[in-house]
Amino acid sequence: SCKICDFPSHGMHFGVMTCRPCAAFFRRFVVLKLNYACLQDRERCSLNKIRRSSCRHCRFQKCLQMGMSNTALNLSKKQDPKIEPEMIIQCQAEPSTSLMPVIKLEVNRFLITFESYIFEDQLYTKSILSEIRYDNLWKDMNEIFSSGIPSTKHGHFATLSPLYRFVEGLKLVRKPQQTERIKFENRLSMNTLVPHWRAQARHTAILSMHSMAFRNIKSMADKTMIYKAVWRNIYRFERIQMSTEIFGGKCVSEKKLAISCEKAIQLDALFFDLEGVAQEKVKLSLQDYKAFAERCVEEVAKPLNELCPSIEEVAFLILNFVLHNEDTIKGEALEVCDEFRDNIADDLHKYYQDNEIVNYAQRVAKMMSIIIAMKKIHYEDLGGGFIVNTRNSEN
């Protein structure tokens, strides 16, 4: 049995016989330099009865007490080895698509492709096709969050594990993705930016409904608070990774970024055309945006391009980025997210096992480093500053 929680173990991890969720918990704690105050709860803080829902401070103390060592995680930057050949996961030439049956629907002369289960509810179709007013944005998000779509009780989605449910969401929002025919639009105006922000919000809300941690939070107020805090950078994280798939090394060397499924930008050629706005304000907004985007390229896109993650790993990265913004996740929602972390860590291990990828500890450590980099950028929120500056410049 696991020396930490007494559940069935899965082998030696960090020098101790543990289950995979406890091993993943210990890795997160060390790599992300987490620090939690003890709950001082007689039941949840007893080191003799540690469970996965126990006080996280005391759970970590039990890990140390039983002899778990962080030596394997302390990789020196100077000695950081290249990823071993057997750890490389083949990049896909085309963005991932679902294996599910596909229904094609002709809408306003455009052929839109949807997975068949989307038609369980008209709200899903509306969320993809219809144009929304900016004033009604949060109302529409709440409708998506309360829809219960896709169903977790029947159909294909209900048969999937937590990680693969989010993978399915990624496949859905990436279905319209252009690669060879993606268009560069380096001259951006408010006429292009505002609809782009609307689409971002909508797609991220749909993606969020594929996360069981998000769905299982009962309070709509908690859901909305978490979503408002992180939705922009969830979308950016996903777009940065997709940019590395589409452009490869040119994403970094030529600063090419796919900002949507149809459009891309090249940072060095980017120009803002904001009618009726003072040029100094436009220049400031452009500088803010470029500074943010260049950090994303260097600190996130570059290591992602070197890692070349599979779609399962991309799902794991995005989910962990959200789960580690813990200042927005509190109370009951925190317990839901803790259990979800263990589940997706277990799913990722099974994915590696099924694909006969044995030496993956260093790969997971690199993913955690990418999460830390994106988390820092998110907290500094240069992108949010850009949006605020742009809106203020209109007034």
Oligomeric description of these chains: single chain
CATH topology of the largest domain: Retinoid X Receptor
Order of helices and strands: EEHHEEHHHEEHHHHEEEHHHHH
Number of strands: 9
Structural class: mainly alpha
What gap, in angstroms, lies between the N and C termini?
A: 63 Å
Question: What is the helix fraction of residues, given as a range?
Answer: 40-55%
Q: Which shape, going by the Cα principal axes?
A: globular
Q: Under the CATH scheme, which architecture of the largest domain would be assigned?
A: Orthogonal Bundle
Count the domains: 2
Rg over C-alpha atoms, rounded to the nearest angstrom? 22 Å
Under CATH at level 1, the class of the largest domain stands as Mainly Alpha
Strand order of the biggest β-sheet = 5-8-7
Q: What average pLDDT do the residues reach?
A: 76
SS field, number of helical segments: 14
Low-confidence stretches: 74-134, 382-395
Strand content range: 5-15%
Largest sheet: 3 strands, mixed
Write out the CATH superfamily name of the largest domain: Retinoid X Receptor
Structural account:
By secondary structure, the protein is mainly alpha-helical. It has 2 domains: 56 residues, Erythroid Transcription Factor GATA-1, Chain A; 246 residues, Retinoid X Receptor (Orthogonal Bundle), CATH 1.10.565.10. Helices cover 52% and strands 7% of the residues. It is built from 14 helices and 9 strands. A 3-stranded mixed β-sheet has the order 5-8-7. The chain has a two-stranded antiparallel ribbon with strand order 1-2. Strand 1 and strand 2 form a beta hairpin. Helix 4 runs parallel beside helix 6, helix 5 packs antiparallel against helix 6 and helix 11 crosses helix 13. The C terminus is likely disordered.
